[in-house]
């Protein structure tokens, strides 16, 4: 069987998803028996995306006009385009910046931060800054590999499936289904912060920690809850959940509406949409409102 050509393209990214790909360690040798890596800024000195690539993995979301152009080029040259990681799939943590006015954010960063002296917002010979977006808002995405970072084993299995012409699948259950601590048996009486030591054998949501396990796609083995750390939702909404944040708010209201005191939605809003705000229904409404105003 002829090897499939594989490329990894990076947009606005910290490179963590690229590292997750390389974290296959010796298993990458098995992968390279089926695919030829033709573009990767961490591994190969290849400046341009080659033409006619079988599988292109795109890490990072869209933040600038340059990201848009690179993404569209990747889509033109890819037979199969895959969103790699939460930023590409949902917008990721950078998507929370969409909660604020773009110009105000630029003004704060370049003019008002304590380390800036006579700062100015750069405008010449730099790409235009746009609202953070997952890549599906600009191009057709054939498959998603969620996670921050995504699971190396899952990356490998999906690439091998695509290389063989098969249709890969993602887990349909939730992180709670993989977690040995849950589900909650009692209603929490208050919200706890992550610096408060948890009981090691009790569901974190039951203890009052803001755990996104009930609404987050499985596949990570519930690593965070197993270590006593609440799930923060990095794998995005589970398969039957339309909006991750709204579903979690509904869950919290169902199990703790009459027990939790001093809950403030504004204070905890980033918990609901830590990774998925840029792909949420709220963001859709904001975008439609802006289009109508124009």
Characterize the structure shown.
There is one protein chain. With 294 residues, the chain is an alpha/beta fold. It folds into 2 domains: 4-96 and 124-163, NADH:ubiquinone oxidoreductase-like, 20kDa subunit (Rossmann fold, 3-Layer(aba) Sandwich); 175-284, no CATH class. It is built from 12 helices and 7 strands. It has helices at 16-22, 27-31, 65-77, 86-90, 102-112, 152-163, 175-178, 204-207, 223-226, 244-256, 265-272, 281-293; strands at 4-10, 35-39, 53-59, 62-64, 78-84, 129-133, 143-145. The strands form 2 sheets. Strands 2-1-3-5-7 form a 5-stranded parallel sheet, sandwiched between helices. A two-stranded antiparallel sheet has the order 4-6. The chain is globular, with a radius of gyration of 21 Å. The protein starts with a strand and ends with a helix.
């Amino acid at each position: 069987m002829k090897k499939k050509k594989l490329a990894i393209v990076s947009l606005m990214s910290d490179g963590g998803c690229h590292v997750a790909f390389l974290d296959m360690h010796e298993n990458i040798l098995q992968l390279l028996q089926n695919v030829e890596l033709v573009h990767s800024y961490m591994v190969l000195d290849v400046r341009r995306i080659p033409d006619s690539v079988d599988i292109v993995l795109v890490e990072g979301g869209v933040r600038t006009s340059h990201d848009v152009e690179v993404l569209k080029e990747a889509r033109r040259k890819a037979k199969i385009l895959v969103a790699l990681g939460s930023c590409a799939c949902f917008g990721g943590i950078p998507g929370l910046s969409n909660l604020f006015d773009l110009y105000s954010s630029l003004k704060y960063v370049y003019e008002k931060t304590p380390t800036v002296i006579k700062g100015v917002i750069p405008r010449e010979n730099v790409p235009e800054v746009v609202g953070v977006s997952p890549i599906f808002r600009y191009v057709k995405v054939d498959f998603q590999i969620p996670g921050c970072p995504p699971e190396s084993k899952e990356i490998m299995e999906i690439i091998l499936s695509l290389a063989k012409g098969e249709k890969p699948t993602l887990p349909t259950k939730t992180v709670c289904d993989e977690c040995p601590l849950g589900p909650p048996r009692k209603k929490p009486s208050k919200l706890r912060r992550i610096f408060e030591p948890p009981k090691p054998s009790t569901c974190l949501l039951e203890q009052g920690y803001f755990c996104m396990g009930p609404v987050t796609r499985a596949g990570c083995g519930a690593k965070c809850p197993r270590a006593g750390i609440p799930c923060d939702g990095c794998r995005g909404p589970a398969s039957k959940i339309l909006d991750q944040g709204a579903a979690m708010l509904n869950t919290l209201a169902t199990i703790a509406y009459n027990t939790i005191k001093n809950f403030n939605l504004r204070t905890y809003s980033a918990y609901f949409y830590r990774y998925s705000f840029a792909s949420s229904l709220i963001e859709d409404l904001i975008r439609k409102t802006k289009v109508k105003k124009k």
